[in-house]
Amino acid sequence: MSSNTSQRGSMPMTNERPDDEVPPDADDAQIRTYMNEDSEQPVRHLFIDWPSASVKGLYTIGACMPDVSPPLFDMPLPEVVQDNAASAVFKTRSSPINVTVNILHGQGGGLVPQSTPQVPNKLAESMRKNTVFVSGKSVSNSVTINVPNYVGRRPLHIRCKSTAGNVTVAIPRSFNGMLSWRVETGTFHMSPEVSSHAKRLDAEQNKRHGTMKLVADPDLPAWMTGNGKRGDVLEISTKTGRLIVYMAGEKKMTAHGCVVA
Fold first, then answer.
1. What would you measure as the largest C-alpha separation in the chain, in angstroms?
2. How far apart are CA 10 and CA 15, in angstroms?
3. pLDDT higher at 127 or 240
4. Average per-residue pLDDT in the chain?
5. Which DSSP state fits 223?
6. pLDDT grade, residue 227 (50/70/90)?
7. Which intervals carry biased composition (Acidic residues) (predicted)?
8. Where is 56: in which H helix or E strand?
9. What radius of gyration do the chain's Cα atoms show?
10. Strand partners, 102
11. Kind plus residue range of the DSSP H or E element containing 233
12. Do 161 and 215 form a contact (C-beta atoms < 8 A)?
């Protein structure tokens, strides 16, 4: 991992500002945390595609950050850049992925004004481009993604997939939306804390797939969850491994001690 200490004193940001009631001191706290961590340079869109090398470390993205040219690693996929306000995408074939993704709120804007008339296709396009996307995919090894914190109104979309490995995801406590999981011969597990916030939406229980609604703690400040209307999405799947979901800040979970769906 490269050292970016010299770049942290002045972090350029876009001047668009969302009206999502996130206190300025929350932004300042995020920046201070970032400056004290050994993270790569923050960018808007990040893509790492290493077929035979493991991907690990701490990365920082944010819609408030400018695009970087040339990119830090691989060139972000055009469709991902087009469809999301910010993104971090990790891909391998035979090696594991084990990353933490910090997401800066900053001053990034681009929200659709509520008073602005929108035809349906334009509204859908605007909503899609508001998403912050985090993805991990390994063909034959494990995927571990940790998103420790997330605030604001932009929907958070996490997608993790493996064919033969385990998939472990730590979601932020402000996560408020849908969880969709799928296995073939594998198993799905939630930590007790995640389970306490989950409501099954399937008419019948199935050992191979399921959909749940995760409701954030109502005691959290409204600005952390987009007033409870953000609509986050978590999609996880594996064929033969284990799926494990827990809350960021909990002791890292294994299948032992989790709730089996």
1. 55
2. 14
3. 240
4. 80
5. G
6. confident
7. 18-27
8. strand 55-61
9. 18
10. 60
11. strand 232-238
12. no
